[in-house]
Every structure is written in C-alpha cells, then in structure tokens.
Write a structure and sequence with these properties.
The chain is mostly beta strands and 69 residues long. It is 10% helix and 43% strand. It has a single domain, classed as OB fold (Dihydrolipoamide Acetyltransferase, E2P) (Beta Barrel), CATH 2.40.50.
Length: 69
C-alpha cells in the first residue's frame, strides 16, 4: 500500500499518510522505527505494510525496498 505523508512528528516518531484512495491512515512510532529511517517530510511518497487488523507495522520511502518483499 502506498500514500503521501500528511503529518509526521519527529519527537513521537508517528504520523499519518494520505492513501491513494483519499483515506487517512495513521502509523505508530514502532512502524517508523522498524524502517530504520531517521525522518519523513510532508508530501513524501511512502510505502506501508499493514497487518491483518489494519494496523501499520512498517513505513518506508516508496523507492526503497521492503525487506519482506
């Protein structure tokens, strides 16, 4: 799943993404930390991994490879 960073708080390391279908999906610090990234900027294109409950477990820049792909 892909989207665009709508908000990101570097202190809490959480934020939300505007998905391609127009919905908004938040991500927790754990999903950001799993990626190894240090920062996201507004408008940046990202790829998300979501678990069976719809919770985001991994967020990375869309051009980077997902280690589980």
């Amino acid at each position: 799943m892909q989207g665009t960073v709508r908000s990101f708080d570097p202190r809490s390391r959480s934020g939300d993404v505007l998905l391609d279908d127009g919905s908004v999906l938040g991500f927790p610090a754990a999903a950001f930390d799993a990626s190894g990234l240090r920062l996201l900027r507004l408008g940046q294109r990202v790829r998300l991994r979501v678990d069976g409950n719809g919770a985001v477990t991994f967020v990375t820049i869309a051009t980077l490879a997902d280690p589980l792909d």
